[in-house]
Amino acid sequence: MPAYNRGKRRRSNPAYEATENATARAKRRGAVKELAALRQQRRLLPSHDPSDPDYRRLGYVCYADDWLLGFVGPKAEAEEIKRQLGTFLRDELNLELSEEKTLITHVASQPARFLGYDIVVRYVNDKLDWRGQRQVNASIGLRLPQEVIREHRTRYERKGYPIHLVRNHDRDFTIVAEYQAAFRGLAQYYLLAQNVGWLWRLYWTMPGSLLKTLACKHKSLMMALQRKYRATVQTPSGSMSCLRVVVERRPGKKPLVAQFGGIPLRRQRNAVLTETPPKIDTDWGNELLQRLLADTCELCGSHRDCEVHHLRKLADLKRKGRREKPVWVQIIVARQCKTLVVCRPCHEAIHAGRPIGRNLA
Fold first, then answer.
1. Is this model's pTM higher than 0.85 or not?
2. Within 10 Å of residue 223's Cβ, how many Cβ atoms?
3. pLDDT of the residue at 316
């Protein structure tokens, strides 16, 4: 395969150069109206020749078993690269390239989907830098797909109106915390998207569903519960309203706080993304609030400095070929619950891989 990244620079566009020269002449003559018209015309033209037959570029990015190639060149060469990749995977690695999932997409007309993001090429002629030159055109952008918003909104609304979820067995603290976890996980995953503000459409739906769920549980009015739990939180983007539930504990212990809202939807270029946005868990058999209020380590029975050890998913504990599972793993697997309330020494022992002081097997 040729070294596409070492080619020469793309040649200039003759039409753009002609318009630029005409703009310079109009500026010297002081023709204000002609100068404005030529500048508008220049913005509509690419500065480099998009049909340069000698220009090639090839970029590559991979995450686990997902990969993406960015190629600048003819479609015939893109198909040849795909064929060579299929041959290499089949002959060298004994793997088959999925023809259905391996697509060739022209991103100028259709976005390419990668890890839940839409990869697009941006064209904005009126976004200029301090020199008056376009700074966005032909650059790659990350966007939040519309399907993601539509899919998540259908969980909390019917026919355009919020609906309640059946959570009569849970306390208000748990309901609010799980709504917040669902929205926060989605927001944190799409912080790199330029249109992360689209998540406000989901945010406007979820509070209605949350209040309806609480109202259905308490047989009360939504407005009464909104007045009861309304609060204001300070964020780096200023103060924001939210719904907050506070559960007091014994003297000397900080209260437990669960809130929905207070997440500024601002793009962060250097955001650290979580791999999988969390979903609302409908398992009512292990309510975390009751276990936190008990303030007891579920491994050694201590009542000092209790906190929560949380797993990403239970499947990580059930892989074959591992040595004998420690006691804390056996407890979590038996409960089918991803959380374990432990004291600080036991929590440090879990992360360090040391045996727990008291054997509860």
1. no
2. 10
3. 62
Q: Which of 300, 296, 323 is nearest to 308 (CA)?
A: 296
Phi, psi of 128 (to 5 degrees): -115, 155
What local confidence, expressed as pLDDT, does residue 175 receive? Answer: 86
Residues with Cβ within 8 Å of 61's Cβ and at least 6 positions away in sequence, in order, are 67, 68, 70, 114
Q: How many whole angstroms separate alpha carbon 209 and alpha carbon 5?
A: 51
For 63-106, what is each residue's pLDDT tens digit? 877 888 888 888 888 888 888 888 888 888 888 888 778 888 88
247 DSSP 8-state letter:
E
Alpha-carbon gap, residue 55 to 73, rounded angstroms: 7
- Give the residue from 67, 76, 12 showing the smallest Cα distance to 45: 12
Long-range contacts of 162-165 (CB under 8 A, 24+ apart): 162/205, 162/206, 162/207, 162/208, 162/209, 162/211, 162/212, 163/209, 163/212, 164/209, 164/212, 164/213, 164/215, 164/216, 165/209, 165/213, 165/280
* Residue pLDDT, tens place only, 26-63: 888 888 888 788 777 777 777 776 777 777 888 888 88
pLDDT value of residue 358? 47
Longest dimension (CA), the chain: 91
Place of tokens 């003559």: 29
C-alpha span between 23 and 43 (Å, rounded): 12
pLDDT tens figures, 236-262 = 888 888 888 888 877 877 888 888 888
Distance CA 299, CA 330 (A): 11
Contact indicator for 180, 130 with CB cutoff of 8 Å: no
Exposed / middle / buried, residue 29 (Cβ in 10 Å: 0-12, 13-18, 19+): exposed
Q: 234 Cβ partners below 8 Å, 6+ apart? A: none
How far, CA to CA in Å, does 359 sit from each of 197, 292, 293, 298?
Answer: 50, 22, 24, 11
Q: Which residues pair with 231 in a beta bridge?
A: 242
Domain ranges in the chain are 1-59, 60-143, 161-261, 295-352
d(Cα 23, Cα 37) in Å, to the nearest integer?
9
